[in-house]
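Sequence, please.
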C-alpha cells in the first residue's frame, strides 16, 4: 500500500471482437506504469500476448491526437488547426444536415473500423438519421463466414472445442491470433482430441496437428468436396440426418462424384492419401466440428462457395448443433454468445430498411443484402463515389477509417476526394486522418468503459483505468453528442449511454450498476444453456432444412459464382483461372496471414513490437523458390502484380508453401492491398481476393548485412539450417543468456546448455 500503486481491472481491445483479454493495470499518480494479464479472467487466465504487453506504449505513443483538428490546407497536406469539441461537433452536424436536406440522408456514410465496442450506437445513429449506409470493416472480415454458414445452416455456428473428438481447423492459427482459443485447443489435445489443420503454411497450429493438409491458396472448396466424396463413397455420412433434415443432398452427391482424391490432388496439391485419411478421421469420429477463421478462406473470389463446401462436411456427418459438434449459439452482444439475452438488435435498428434508400452495393451484391448482417457493403464505396449511382454520396464519418483496407487503396483514396466532408476519429494521426477535413481524438480502452462478453458466460463492463489523455473522448461519447445534434428526438439517445446499456441488457436481468461492482467481470447469473438440435423444429433457412443446395442462391438462376450448389471455380487470378497471366506472374500472392506481434496496422508504430521482426515489411517465400531466384534472407525484392508493385525484404522460410509469396498487410510504405484490382471481389459477399492473386518476385538489391535476419540469434549460435523457420522460439527459451551456442534444428546442446530451446521449437526439432 505504501507504494501508491493501485491495480485496476480493465480489458485489452487491441484485437477485436472475440479476443478481449482481462488486464491488470498498475496505476500510480494517474499514470499506467505496468500491464499484466488478469489471472482470474476466464478467457486469458493471466496470459498476455506481445500486443497486449505493449498496451502502455500504445496508450502513451507520441502519435496520439491531442485535440480536435480542422483542416486548413489542401486535403492530404496534414495542415490542421486545433478547434474546440463544440466547434467540431457543430460543424459536423451542420455539414450532415445540409447534405441530408439537399441529397437525402443516404448521402451520409457512417463507417466503423476498429474497435467495435461502439457499433450498436453508431448503427443506431446512422439509421435514426435516416441513412442506410452504416458499414464497417466487416465488409472484409468475418461477415462472409457468417453468410456461408447462414446459407447452409440458417444460423451461424461455432466449434465446441471443449467436447469434440475431432477438430478440423480450416485455415486458422490461434497461437498467433487468439490466446484463449489456443489454450482451449491445447487442453483438448491433452484429453485426446484429434486435430486436422488445413493451411498453406507451416504454423504452430499445423505442428500440433495429426494431419496437415497443405492446400494451395483458393483451392479450399475442391479439397472440401473431395473429402465429401470420400465420406459418401465410404458410406460414412449420416443417412438419417440427411434424409430427415437436409435439402438438396441428391444434387450435391451427384456434384461431388467428380471430385475424387486424385483429381483434388491436382487442384489442391494435397496428396490424395492425406485427403482420404483426413476425411475418414473426421467422419469416423464420434463428434467432429470445424474451427472457422474470419478471413483466410473468404478472401478469395470463390470464398463463400469454398466455405459453404467446408461447412457441408458438418452437415454430411450429422455434427450440426450437437455437443462436440458445430453449435448454433445465439449472439448476446457484439457477435459473441455470452449465455444471456439482450435487445442489441432492436436497439440498433430504429428504422426498417424499407423506410430507407437502398444500401451502398445493394444492386451489385444482392446476396450480401439478404444473408449478411444488415450493413452496406463498403467495398462498393469507390465505385459509387466515382459514378454517383444510384445516388451521390457527400459526407463520411469514420471511426477508425483506414483507406488501405480496400483493394487498390490509392484508387479508393482518390475517390474519397469527391466527398464534400470527411470526419475521422482515431487515437492516432494516421494517413487516413490526414485525408480528412476534421480529425477527432479517441480514447484507448484504458481510458473508457466498454461492455464485452465471452462464450463461457462471462460479462465485463470495464471502468476507465486512467483519465482520458489530452482532449480525447470515448467513441460512444462522441456518438451521443452527435445524436443530440442530428436526431434530438430519438427516445433512447435522449436517455444517455448508461441508460441505453441498461435498456439493451434488460432481458438478461443485469444492470450497469451491478456490472460496475465487478470491474474485472462476472459470470452471468442463470446462464442460458444452449439448446441442441434446434433444427428439428425447423432450420432458419427458406426450406426450413439444412441446405446442401441454397434456396437463397437458387433465385439468381445459377449465375457464375452464385450457383446454388457449392460449385468450385478457381480464383479469377490463379494459375488455373488466368493461365496466360501466370506465365508472367508465376507466384501466388497470399496476404494477411497473422504474425504474433501485429494486428492489421494498429500496432505497427510501436517500437517494442517492430523490434520483434525488424526486417519488415517482408515477404515469406519458400527456400526452394528463393534458391531458384538467387534470393537470400534480407535481400530487397520487388513483389509485383499487373496492378502495382512494392519493395520488401525477403524472408525465405519453410513456413511458406512452394510457389506462394506470403505477405503481411497494413504497411504504409509497402501496402500489399495496393497490388490488387479494386474489382477483384467475391460476387456473393463482395470480399476482396486478398489471399490469391498472381505475382512475380525480382531482386532489387542484395542484403548488405549478411548473416543477419529477422531473428536475432544468440552470440555464437550457428546459422540455422535451410529449413529453419526462424520463429525465434529457441532464442526466447534459451536459459543461458546467449553465452553458449546451440543448434535447435539438429537438437544438439553444448557445454551444459539446457535444451529448452530444442523443446520450444513449435515445429519439432527433429522434424525440420
Amino acid at each position: 500500500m505504501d507504494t501508491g500503486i493501485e491495480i485496476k481491472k480493465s480489458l485489452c481491445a487491441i484485437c477485436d471482437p472475440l479476443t478481449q483479454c482481462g488486464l491488470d493495470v498498475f496505476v500510480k499518480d494517474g499514470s499506467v506504469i505496468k500491464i499484466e494479464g488478469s489471472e482470474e479472467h476466464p478467457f486469458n487466465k493471466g496470459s498476455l500476448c506481445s500486443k497486449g504487453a505493449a498496451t502502455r506504449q500504445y496508450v502513451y505513443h507520441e502519435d496520439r491526437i491531442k485535440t480536435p483538428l480542422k483542416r486548413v490546407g489542401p486535403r492530404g497536406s496534414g495542415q490542421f488547426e486545433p478547434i474546440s469539441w463544440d466547434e467540431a461537433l457543430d460543424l459536423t452536424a451542420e455539414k450532415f444536415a445540409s447534405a441530408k436536406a439537399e441529397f437525402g440522408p443516404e448521402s451520409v456514410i457512417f463507417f466503423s473500423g476498429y474497435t467495435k465496442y461502439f457499433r450498436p450506437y453508431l448503427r443506431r445513429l446512422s439509421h435514426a438519421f435516416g441513412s442506410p449506409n452504416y458499414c464497417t470493416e466487416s465488409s472484409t472480415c468475418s461477415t462472409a463466414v457468417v453468410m456461408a454458414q447462414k446459407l447452409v445452416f440458417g444460423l451461424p455456428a461455432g466449434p465446441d472445442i471443449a467436447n469434440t473428438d475431432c477438430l478440423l481447423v480450416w485455415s486458422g492459427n490461434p497461437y498467433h491470433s487468439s490466446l484463449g482459443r489456443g489454450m482451449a485447443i491445447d487442453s483438448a489435445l491433452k484429453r485426446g482430441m484429434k486435430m486436422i489443420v488445413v493451411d498453406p503454411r507451416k504454423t504452430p497450429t499445423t505442428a500440433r496437428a495429426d494431419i496437415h493438409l497443405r492446400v494451395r491458396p483458393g483451392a479450399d472448396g475442391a479439397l472440401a468436396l473431395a473429402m465429401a466424396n470420400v465420406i459418401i463413397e465410404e458410406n460414412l455420412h449420416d443417412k438419417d440426418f440427411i434424409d430427415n433434415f437436409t435439402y438438396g443432398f441428391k444434387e450435391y452427391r451427384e456434384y461431388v462424384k467428380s471430385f475424387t482424391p486424385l483429381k483434388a490432388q491436382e487442384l489442391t496439391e494435397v496428396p490424395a492419401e492425406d485427403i482420404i485419411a483426413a476425411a475418414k478421421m473426421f467422419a469416423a469420429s464420434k463428434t467432429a466440428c470445424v474451427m472457422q477463421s474470419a478471413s483466410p478462406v473468404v478472401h478469395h473470389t470463390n470464398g463463400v462457395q469454398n466455405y459453404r463446401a467446408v461447412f457441408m462436411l458438418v452437415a454430411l456427418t450429422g455434427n450440426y448443433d450437437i455437443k462436440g459438434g458445430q453449435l448454433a449459439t445465439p449472439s448476446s452482444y457484439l457477435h459473441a454468445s455470452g449465455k444471456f439475452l439482450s435487445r442489441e438488435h432492436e436497439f440498433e435498428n430504429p428504422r426498417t430498411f424499407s423506410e430507407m434508400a437502398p444500401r451502398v452495393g445493394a444492386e451489385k451484391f444482392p446476396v450480401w443484402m439478404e444473408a449478411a448482417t444488415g450493413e452496406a457493403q463498403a467495398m462498393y464505396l469507390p465505385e459509387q463515389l466515382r459514378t454517383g449511382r444510384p445516388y451521390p454520396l457527400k459526407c463520411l464519418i469514420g471511426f477508425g477509417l483506414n483507406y488501405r483496407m480496400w483493394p487498390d487503396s490509392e484508387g479508393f483514396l482518390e475517390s474519397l476526394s469527391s466527398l464534400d466532408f470527411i470526419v475521422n476519429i482515431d487515437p492516432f494521426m494516421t494517413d487516413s486522418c490526414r485525408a480528412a477535413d476534421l480529425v477527432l481524438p479517441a480514447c484507448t480502452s484504458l481510458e473508457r468503459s466498454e461492455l464485452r462478453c465471452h462464450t463461457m458466460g462471462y460479462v465485463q463492463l470495464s471502468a476507465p483505468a486512467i483519465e482520458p489523455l489530452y482532449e480525447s473522448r470515448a467513441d460512444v461519447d462522441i456518438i451521443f453528442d452527435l445524436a443530440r445534434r442530428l436526431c434530438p428526438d430519438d427516445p433512447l439517445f435522449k436517455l444517455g449511454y448508461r441508460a441505453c446499456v441498461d435498456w439493451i441488457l434488460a432481458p438478461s436481468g443485469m444492470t450497469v450498476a451491478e456490472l460496475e461492482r465487478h470491474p474485472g467481470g462476472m459470470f452471468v447469473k442463470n446462464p442460458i444453456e444452449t439448446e441442441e438440435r434446434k433444427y428439428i423444429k425447423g432450420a432458419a433457412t427458406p426450406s426450413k432444412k439444412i441446405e446442401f443446395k441454397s434456396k437463397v442462391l437458387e433465385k439468381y438462376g445459377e449465375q457464375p459464382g452464385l450457383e446454388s450448389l457449392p460449385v468450385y471455380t478457381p480464383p479469377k487470378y490463379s494459375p488455373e483461372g488466368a493461365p496466360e497471366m501466370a506465365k508472367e506472374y508465376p507466384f501466388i500472392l497470399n496476404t494477411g496471414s497473422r504474425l504474433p506481434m501485429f494486428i492489421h496496422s494498429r500496432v505497427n508504430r510501436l517500437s517494442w513490437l517492430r523490434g520483434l521482426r525488424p526486417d519488415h515489411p517482408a515477404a515469406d517465400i519458400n527456400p526452394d523458390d528463393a534458391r531458384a531466384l538467387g534470393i537470400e534472407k534480407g535481400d530487397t525484392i520487388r513483389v509485383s502484380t499487373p496492378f502495382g508493385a512494392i519493395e520488401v525484404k525477403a524472408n525465405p522460410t519453410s513456413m511458406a508453401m512452394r510457389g506462394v509469396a506470403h505477405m503481411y498487410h497494413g504497411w504504409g510504405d509497402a501496402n500489399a492491398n495496393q497490388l490488387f484490382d479494386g474489382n477483384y471481389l467475391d460476387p456473393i459477399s463482395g470480399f476482396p481476393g486478398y489471399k490469391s492473386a498472381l505475382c512475380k518476385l525480382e531482386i532489387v538489391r542484395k542484403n548488405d548485412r549478411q548473416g543477419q535476419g529477422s531473428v536475432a540469434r544468440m552470440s555464437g549460435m550457428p546459422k540455422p539450417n535451410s529449413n529453419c523457420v526462424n520463429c525465434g522460439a529457441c532464442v526466447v527459451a534459451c536459459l543461458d543468456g546467449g553465452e553458449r551456442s546451440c543448434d535447435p534444428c539438429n537438437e544438439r546442446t553444448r557445454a551444459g546448455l539446457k535444451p529448452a530451446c530444442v523443446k520450444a521449437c513449435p515445429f519439432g526439432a527433429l522434424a525440420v
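DSSP finds 28 helices and 27 strands in the chain.
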